[in-house]
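The records we work with from here on pair a chain with its fold. Taken together, the tokens spell out the fold as the letters spell out the chain. The record below shows the convention in full.
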Amino acid sequence: MLVNRSYKVAGHVFSLSLEEEDKAWGALGNYDPFLCEDYSGALFSLEVVPEMEIGPKEEYFISKPEGGEQRIDIYHIDGGYLFELAPFPETPICGWLKVNSDFSKGTLMSTAYKVFCINNAMMLMYAFRTVGLDTIEIHASCTVKDGKGFLFLGKSGTGKSTHSRLWLKNIPGAWLLNDDNPVIRIVDGTPRVYGTPWSGKTPCYINDNYPVGAVVRINRAPHDAIHRMGVMEGFASLYSSSSGLRDIKSIADGLFNTISEVVQKVPCYLLDCLPDDQAAIVCSEEVLGNA
């Protein structure tokens, strides 16, 4: 028998359907803080099935992951898109996600790594479904200090998580809201950052939200220095770390409109730094003074 559970992240409701006896339920505790009772207004639904016909597909985007990065390839199919998933570059495709054109309905089949496939399917559908609703999913680490959220962006391996840990170590009262995929949503004109069920390798699944105090891009350098970006530079920084299929006009417009509002209301910085305690001190002194 299928069990349907609904969740709410940044005020947006979505649902997951999975066989009641499926052992994957026991490994999806990251969603428990986000459970909600009413799913009648769900923005999207995902059903996990034992088998699924793939049918004809046309290449749309083929990923080129490096190191331990996951593999996500995208194809056009009749009526929507097909996502093919694998946890590592060398791993065979083990998940197939079919979605309709507006990402409101998805069907997932997996042959291995089921929890990985479910998490990524839900995260992808969330990002693409909510992007037109003043909401963007960000690849970042986020700490909270003095009632505001501070997002650290950067390319993979630049030290986003390391910088958050340095804040926790050196800045009294700082704590981690999310370590990989927080969500920014504009509410009553204020950009707010939300915890999500998706936090990378760090188990940090907190259902809470705070006004965004600053956005900081991390850049590895032989010194510690920070400067405030202009609006255009800040836009480019946030845009490059946001999730979305930019060739789809509705998604591109949603990203543009939301990020434009964020960078006009939130200070954005570039932090050149070493992975050391002083980096956190230099960063915090600047951003906390202007948040």
Residues 180 and 199 are 5 Å apart (CA to CA).
